Amino acid sequence: MSGTSGTTAAGSASSGTANSPWRNWAGNVTSRPVREASPASAEELAEVIRRAAEDGLRVKTVGTGHSFTSIAATDGVLVRPHLLTGIRRIDRAAMTVTVESGTPLKRLNVALAREGLSLTNMGDIMEQTVAGATSTGTHGTGRDSASIAAQIRELELVTAEGQLLVCSEKENPEVFAAARIGLGALGVVTAITFAVEPVFLLTAREEPMTFDRVVSDFDALHAENEHFEFYWFPHTDNCNTKRNNRSAGPAAPPGKVSGWIEDELLSNGIFQVACSLGRAVPPFIPSIAKVSSRALSARTYTDIPYKVFTSPRRVRFLEMEYALPRGAAVDALRELKAMVERSPLKVSFPVEVRTAPADDIALSTASGRETVYIAVHLYKGTPHQAYFTAVERIMTAHGGRPHWGKVHTRDAAYFAEAYPRFAEFTALRDRLDPDRRFANDYLRRVLGD
Known about the structure:
eight-stranded antiparallel sheet; 32% helix
C-alpha cells in the first residue's frame, strides 16, 4: 500500500496520510485508514497511540495481511510493524529467543536454523509476522506440540495508555494468559520470547490414501505420528496424507528437480491453472479434482523442521477453519463429504485436516480440549457463501470454534458459550482498553462492545 510518508515531531514514528485503501492477502477485505505509522521502537509506538487518542482515532496493527477476516482493518491509524524486526537475543541457558513483533516467521526460522535452533512446531506457511501469527492463533498439526502461541514464554505489549507491559507466567500472569492470542484487542505486541530447542530432523512421509481408510484409521494415525495431517479432494474419494516424525537422520531433502515438480509445478503452477479453469467453467471441477487428486505421488524425505512443516502457497484463496473436539472429527468429516455429494456445489480446493493438543490460552481454539481442525478453501474470486454457510452449519453443530483469522459468521454471544474463559478475556480488555482504542467492526462482533 502506498502512502505519503513524513516525519512528525522529533523522536516520533514515521507516519503519513494514507492515500489508497489497504487490502489483505486474499483481497476480500479492504479498509481506508486516515493515516499510517511505522514505529521503530516501543517508545515510538506509544507516541503513535497517544496521538491517535488525541485525534479520536482507533489504532490497528497489520502484518502481512494473511487473515481472511477484517481483524486488522481500520478507518483510523494503521500501524505497520516492518521496522520492528530482528532477533533481540538468544538465551541458550533458558533455550529461548526474543524477537521483534514485526519479524516474518520465515526470517525467524532461517535465523534460528543458522544458530542450530528451531521452534518445536509451526504452521504450513511462514509469510506472516510473529505477532500476526500468534495473535490470531496460527497453528500447525501435532499430537503433543501445540500452536505457535503456546510456545511463547514472554511478550511485551503497549497498552492503550502507552504503557509497556512485560507479560509472562511470573510477571502480569493474568495478561499473559490471554495476550498470547490477543486478537489485537489488548494492546500492540512489540516483542515475543519463544521457547526453542536444538535443531532436529523430521522425516516426512506423504502418501495417497482413500477417504474411508483415512477416516476409519484417523485415531490410530493421530496416535502413531507426532504430526499427522491430510487433505481430502471434494468430488473424489482421494486424500493425500502427511506424517512427520523426528528422525536420527541423515538429512535427505527432496531432490531439486523432484521437489520443484511437486511443490512448485504441481502444487502451485498447474493447480493455479486448474483453479482458474474451474472458476471459469464450474461443471469441469469434479473432473479436474479427480486428476488433481492423483497428481501427487508418494514420497519420503528428511530435513530440518521449517523445511518440512512449511510449503509455498502461491495460489490465492479464501478459507474457513473450525476447531472441533477431536472426538467429533470422523462424524464431522463424513457429514461434510455427504453434504458436498448431495449439493450442487463445485469445490476446487482440498479440505485440510490437522490436530492439536489442549492448551491453556484463554481464546485459543484448542483451549482446554484436544482438537481437530477442519479447513475448507475456495479459489480467490469464487462465490463462497453457499459452501461456507453449509460447512459452518456442520461445524457449529459439533461445538466448533472458528479460527480468528479465517472467514466465519459467529459473534460474541456464540463465543461466550464456546469458550469457558471468554468472560475472563473481555474483563481484561475492559481493564486494558476501556475506551476501545484498538477496536474495529470485527472485534465489536466477536467480543462485544
